[in-house]
Write a structure and sequence with these properties.
Number of helices: 12
Shape: globular
Largest sheet: 4 strands, parallel
Strand order of the largest sheet: 2-1-3-4
């Protein structure tokens, strides 16, 4: 069920019987010369919509712009400052609780959002308002990602390329895959910006001139389909687990 497609009277029965919502998130930021700036939010929305269709749980509209200031040197990247993002996500989640939702899965496809979603979730849980958790597709299937790709990225690498080849093939510049690989770097270690145990970089541009890492030529739509189906299965299982929990059991302990 997609919230935006429904008339308000038709949502009443959902809120009476269910307490879980999926909130897709991503970013609008550079993903190299070969992928669209919409990459992350397209991926997040695709997972949330597919799993909502499979489970019947509610999917909200997608948050398209996230914490992406570290990509600001590349044309077209959009971002909000972390405090504004956290405030927005907490307000949005509290809005859902006014309709009876007390557990939320942030279906997130952008690494820059992760610590901020965790902070929001912790605050909502501490206030005993909602139990909101962050889910990243690639973290749910790390073994498959490693099996499919020798150099998986992370940013703009073959795993994201494969997913967009599968989900939105017309948006991929397949003729630029070699360029993406050859003008980027294979991994962060190759950038030599880790000095004596310290991560001395702050921006993507500190590591890679074209914005991406990994071997993009290793991506195929068939691999993207494998990733999508496997991670979707994991998200379905997470939904089922979360829906089955007693809300009181999800709240923080008073003391030990």
């Amino acid at each position: 069920m997609y919230l935006g497609d429904e008339a308000w009277p038709d949502l009443e029965s959902y809120f009476e019987s269910e307490s879980l919502a999926l909130v897709p998130l991503g970013s609008t930021e550079q993903h190299g010369p070969h992928l669209p700036e919409a990459t992350d939010h397209l991926i997040g929305e695709a997972f949330a919509r597919a799993v909502a269709d499979r489970t019947g749980y509610l999917c909200t509209p997608t948050i398209n712009v996230g914490v992406s200031g570290h990509h600001r040197q590349f044309h077209g990247t959009m971002w909000v400052e972390p405090p504004a993002f956290r405030q927005y996500m907490e307000s949005l989640t509290r809005n859902l609780t006014s309709h009876g939702i007390d557990r939320v899965i942030y279906v997130n496809a952008h690494g820059g959002n992760v610590p901020h979603l965790r902070e929001v979730g912790a605050r909502l849980r501490q206030d005993e308002v909602a139990y909101a958790i962050e889910w990243m597709w690639n973290d749910s299937i790390p073994e498959l990602v490693d099996d499919l790709f020798e150099q998986n990225g992370p940013h703009g690498g073959p795993k994201e390329t494969a997913l967009i080849q599968y989900l939105e093939p017309e948006l991929v510049h397949d003729d630029r895959l070699e360029e993406a690989r050859d003008t980027g770097i294979p991994d962060v270690e190759a950038a030599e910006t880790i000095k004596h145990g310290s991560r001395t970089f702050y921006d993507a541009a500190d590591n890679t001139n074209n914005g991406v890492l990994g071997d993009q030529t290793d991506a195929t739509a068939a691999k993207g389909e494998q990733l999508f189906e496997a991670a979707s299965d994991q998200l379905v299982r997470l939904c089922e687990w979360l829906a089955a929990q007693e809300f009181e059991d999800l709240l923080p302990r008073e003391h030990v």
